[in-house]
Amino acid sequence: MDSTVENVRSQMRKGVLEYCILSILSRKEAYASSIIEELKAANMIVVEGTLYPLLIRQKNQGLLSYRWEESTQGPPRKYYVITEKGREILSEMDSAWQEIVSTINALRNHE
Amino acid sequence: MDSTVENVRSQMRKGVLEYCILSILSRKEAYASSIIEELKAANMIVVEGTLYPLLIRQKNQGLLSYRWEESTQGPPRKYYVITEKGREILSEMDSAWQEIVSTINALRNHE
DNA sequence: TTTAATACCTTGTATCGCAAAGTACCAATA
DNA sequence: TATTGGTACTTTGCGATACAAGGTATTAAA
Q1: Quick count: other Cβ atoms within 10 Å of Cβ B17?
Q2: Which secondary structure element, helix H or strand E, spans residue B21, and what is its range?
Q3: Under an 8 A CB cutoff, do A42 and B106 touch?
Q4: Within an 8 Å CB–CB cutoff, is residue B27 touching chain A?
Q5: What are the pLDDT digits (tens) for A37-50?
Q6: Could you tell me the pTM of the whole model?
Q7: Neighbour-count burial for B73-111, b at 16+ CB within 10 Å, e otherwise
């Protein structure tokens, strides 16, 4: 049951997910669960099975590193930290995003 | 050669492709090749193998219909026409898009 | 010692864009 | 009439990716 619109909505979210992750981590380091919380607060529904592989991908691309930290209430947390390369890529993502926004504006308001 | 950024750029485009198609067809009917031209002009690179299945999908969802028209120079063209339902969905896509834009703004400029 | 909460990770599935190859129609030209 | 080139539509196979679902491990409280 496809609900066209929900599908489109989730497609649009997908396109900017990596951008959102890097953006969050550019402000302060964070661990997966807290990133999910922050995304949820911003109306970007993301689940664990999506986020973990994505963080690992970005780490493998050199955009992130991480360190373990003990928690007072539960297992240790893997705090991800944005790298210098990550910041460079983030800034290129800013451009890419602006470009898409312009494109949509052009297409949507043209004439 | 993954070029992270080009990958992200294309991910972002994917997310709004259906939106762009409906948007173009909301102004006037068009056939596949002309849609590709228009998208190219707007900086959205799309190829046949992407567009045709997508048009068929949207037609099957009742967002589009089509009619054949003879061409003076080549085989007949399949002109796609947006339906009433298509216009409704397009307007919901407008909302979805605005929401994503707000989300990004919130995440990107927060603090 | 069992339960609940927190946190990390993996597997299988479905979707989707894209490259590439295929089919068909038409017109001009050899 | 046979061939070539241009236009247009369609299909197949592949790779990437989000997500549902299930799994492991640690800690603290009941």
Answers
A1: 19
A2: helix B4-27
A3: yes
A4: yes
A5: 999 999 898 999 99
A6: 0.92
A7: eeeebbbbebbeebeebbeebeebbeebbebbeebbeee
